[in-house]
């Protein structure tokens, strides 16, 4: 059995690219299936090889990728009929769990073929990011938030503004989270209370604020409480009268 396995293993190793980069041969409109992509491993780079099966020399001048998560590079050298064109494509899976499919367009000049399209697809295996990555402010009692100040800018009296902010329970246990709205401001603020949150649960809150009449500016604090205990930091709300 061991004598049979040795040549098979050597054959597989010989097929791997010398530079370690995975290579996919695709046709115009073709798809390179990257399979499973682990988000925690960061960006993945592959090489796409596309044969010029047209009777004309191709003069590549530009690469276009609609999504900023995908970057492509090429040599901008003329590709004669029958020759291969190579493109390096880097895909960044950060915060994109689930199925993915991205388009790469090659644009040419001076030939009937103006654009050729390639695709990459795969399945991003996500992971649980540290809560501080997108909720960097520690308010105390295990509460983390994306903002310290909700700034609504200038509003006309009676006009309502919207603000979205992220929050999360960084505790290793469940916790009851509420935001105390000062009594004088309750008629002007509408928001959903987080309520009971599981350990490491994260959510986004939508806060509506209506500018009262007779004031040039507004600033007051929303006091977060975790299991009834006030946090060290407060969340400020600010707005100004628009003339």
Considering the chains and any ligands shown, give keywords for the structure:
243 residues; mainly beta; Immunoglobulin-like; 6-stranded mixed sheet; 1 helix; 19 strands; elongated; disordered N terminus
Describe the structure.
This protein is mostly beta strands and 243 residues long. The protein folds into 2 domains: 21-125, Immunoglobulins (Immunoglobulin-like, Sandwich); 131-241, Immunoglobulin-like (Sandwich). The chain has 1 helix and 19 strands. The chain is elongated.
- Give the name of the CATH superfamily of the largest domain: Immunoglobulins
Order of helices and strands: HEEEEEEEEEEEEEEEEEEE
Fraction of residues in helix: under 10%
What's the number of helices?
A: 1
Structural class: mainly beta
End-to-end C-alpha gap: 86 Å
How is the secondary structure organized here?
Layout: H1 2-15, E1 22-26, E2 31-38, E3 44-51, E4 60-64, E5 70-73, E6 84-91, E7 98-108, E8 115-125, E9 137-140, E10 143-145, E11 149-155, E12 160-169, E13 175-180, E14 189-191, E15 195-197, E16 202-210, E17 217-226, E18 229-230, E19 235-241
Parallel strand pairs: 1-3, 2-8, 11-19
Antiparallel strand pairs: 3-6, 4-7, 5-6, 7-8, 9-10, 10-12, 12-16, 13-15, 13-17, 14-16, 17-18, 17-19
């Amino acid at each position: 059995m061991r004598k049979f396995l040795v040549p098979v293993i050597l054959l597989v190793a010989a097929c791997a690219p010398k530079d370690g980069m995975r290579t996919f041969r695709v046709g115009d409109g073709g798809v390179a299936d990257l399979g499973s992509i682990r988000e925690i491993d960061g960006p993945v780079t592959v090489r796409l090889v596309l044969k010029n099966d047209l009777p004309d020399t191709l003069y590549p001048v530009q690469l276009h990728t609609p999504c900023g998560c995908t970057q492509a590079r090429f040599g901008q050298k003329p590709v004669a009929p029958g020759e291969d064109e190579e493109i390096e494509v880097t895909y960044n899976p950060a915060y994109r769990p689930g199925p993915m499919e991205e388009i790469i367009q090659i644009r040419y000049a001076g030939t009937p073929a103006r654009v050729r399209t390639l695709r990459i697809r795969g399945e991003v295996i996500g992971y649980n990011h540290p809560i501080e990555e997108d909720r960097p402010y520690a308010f105390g009692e295990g509460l983390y938030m994306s903002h310290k100040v909700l700034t609504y800018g200038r509003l006309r009296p009676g006009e309502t503004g919207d603000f979205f902010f992220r929050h999360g329970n960084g505790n290793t246990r469940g916790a009851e989270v509420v935001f105390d709205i000062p009594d004088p401001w309750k008629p002007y603020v509408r928001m959903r209370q987080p309520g009971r949150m599981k350990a490491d649960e994260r959510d986004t809150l939508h806060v509506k604020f209506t500018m009262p009449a007779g004031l040039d500016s507004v600033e007051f604090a929303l006091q977060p409480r975790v299991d009834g205990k006030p946090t060290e930091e407060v969340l400020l709300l600010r707005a100004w009268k628009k003339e």
